[in-house]
Design a protein that fits this description.
Elements lengths: L2 H7 L1 H8 L8 H19 L5 E3 L4 E6 L4 E5 L2 H15 L6 H14 L5 H14 L2 H4 L8 H15 L3 H22 L33 H15 L6 H12 L14 E2 L2 E4 L2 E7 L3 E7 L13 E3 L3 H17 L17 H14 L8 H12 L6 H8 L3 H8 L10 H25 L1
Antiparallel strand pairs: 1-2, 2-3, 4-5, 5-8, 6-7
Helix pairs in contact: 1-2, 3-4, 5-9, 6-9, 10-11, 11-12, 11-14, 15-16
């Protein structure tokens, strides 16, 4: 039998074509068909990698959760094992939780999603969908039943619109996996649900600008507090990192990877970030990525931020302190051993300090927004340049970063009054001229 015939027609159509004629196939041909059936079945249900270990001369993969290693000398034997394993599970009776777990395995091992992404999705999934719903059989669940559940839960949880979208997206992905990979359903009922019907159940309150950015006075108070706390420490690299962040508006993940070699006549080259990953049973690990948050999909080589006199003074202070203490490192923001700064430690220190000062805003992101609104915009710097300096698009800058504190309204009354007076004077002169003529 020719493999080409099966490949051209597709396995399902081929089996349909031959029908009862399969009885007339010889042993070798039946074996060939079964081999292809098993391979296709395993491809559809096994999401983890199958690899060959040269040093042990075996084929290996993992199954289950917690995962279990399976090895066989022959790949066909391993496929045969996996075929029997998934057949025995009777995936047609899978619960929503079962398919979620398989889809997560697929995203982690096949689509190369990060451990952080997988963990975040698990938290969203378990927060929105209760155990009773997660244990429901997936086959036969209708869009009406699902919509009723989403309506009920969104009313109870009163989430933000974004959180509701994320929750429904995960459910849609689960059913999509059951459709495309498990092939236990014929359509995705979540696609029939209009999520906009449930936005009225969401928390649609919007934070005011006062709750997102610091005033100039608050920024000065923070700088003073940082300096006061630094006097009690021989080497306070986190304090310097906070002062640096205030002046540059860098993301918290962009601070640790900065090197002395990133400083040039062009400015400070910001083109890396630190990523923290939580691995179950192993704690947190930190790695360096060769791109910033906004350049993950479209790398442009990072951005340059001008080294102002204030920034230069901060960098000189750091250098002098490190030389005095004999600290040698390629990283600007390093500990006494020369290791790069931990962004989580930085964020915790900043949060605690802001709370002690009585501020509701306690994150590094507020420094980015404050720099944009309090410094860059009043200086008349164009939106395109502001967006470049902070490392995001013009649209994002205008929509999320450009704010005005209520204190900034002071003086507007006088400006409007002056404008009104000038316009009235022009009208009066025009009127007088008309009378004379």
């Amino acid at each position: 039998m020719s493999d080409n015939r099966i490949e051209q027609n597709g396995l399902s159509s081929f089996l349909s074509d031959i029908g009862n004629d399969i009885l007339y196939l010889d042993g070798g041909e039946v074996s060939e068909v079964m081999h292809m059936v098993k391979n296709r079945f395993v491809e559809a249900h096994h999401t983890r990698e199958i690899s060959f270990l040269k040093n042990k001369n075996v084929w290996r993969t993992y199954i289950g959760s917690p995962r279990k290693e399976v090895t066989r000398r022959n790949k066909d034997d391993l496929i045969d094992y996996l075929y029997k394993y998934y057949k025995s599970q009777d995936i047609s009776s899978s619960t929503i939780q079962d398919v979620f777990d398989r889809s997560q395995d697929y995203r982690l091992n096949i689509q190369n999603r990060s451990e952080n992404t997988i963990e975040r999705d698990r938290q969203v999934f378990e927060r929105f969908y209760e155990s009773d719903f997660r244990s429901k059989g997936l086959v036969g669940l209708t869009d009406t039943e699902i919509a009723a559940y989403i309506n009920s839960r969104s009313k109870k949880l009163h989430l933000k619109e974004r959180a509701l979208k994320d929750s429904v997206l995960i459910l849609r992905r689960i059913f999509d996996f059951a459709l495309r990979h498990d092939r236990i359903i014929r359509n995705n009922p979540v696609n029939n649900i209009d999520i906009q019907n449930y936005y009225q159940n969401c928390d649609n309150s919007v934070k005011s600008s006062d709750e997102k950015i610091f005033t100039d006075e608050e920024i000065e108070a923070i700088k003073k507090r940082i300096r006061e706390e630094m006097t009690g420490r021989e080497y306070d690299i986190i304090g310097y990192a906070m002062l640096f962040s205030i002046e540059t508006g860098v993301r918290v993940a962009e601070i640790p990877p900065l090197r002395w070699s990133d400083i040039s006549d062009m400015g400070l080259h910001i083109h890396r970030q630190q990523r923290m990953t939580r691995i179950k049973g192993q704690g947190r690990t930190f790695e360096e990525l060769s791109y910033t948050k906004n350049e993950r999909l479209h790398p442009k080589g990072g951005r340059y931020f001008p080294v102002t006199e204030v920034i230069e003074n901060i960098l000189n202070e750091i250098k002098e302190c490190q030389e005095r203490l004999g600290i040698s490192s390629e990283f600007i923001f390093c500990d006494e051993k020369g290791d790069w700064l931990n962004k989580e430690t930085y964020s915790q220190r900043l949060r605690r300090m802001c709370k002690r000062m009585g501020y509701n805003i306690t994150n590094n992101h507020a420094f980015r927004m404050s720099l944009n609104s309090n410094v860059l915009i009043p200086l008349g710097i164009l939106a395109t340049k502001r967006a470049y300096l902070l490392g995001h698009s013009v649209e994002i800058n205008e929509r999320y970063y450009s704010h005005m504190r209520t204190e900034s309204l002071e003086g507007i009354k006088e400006i409007l009054n002056q404008s009104f007076t000038q316009r009235s004077r022009r009208k009066l002169i025009k009127f007088e001229k008309k009378k004379i003529s």
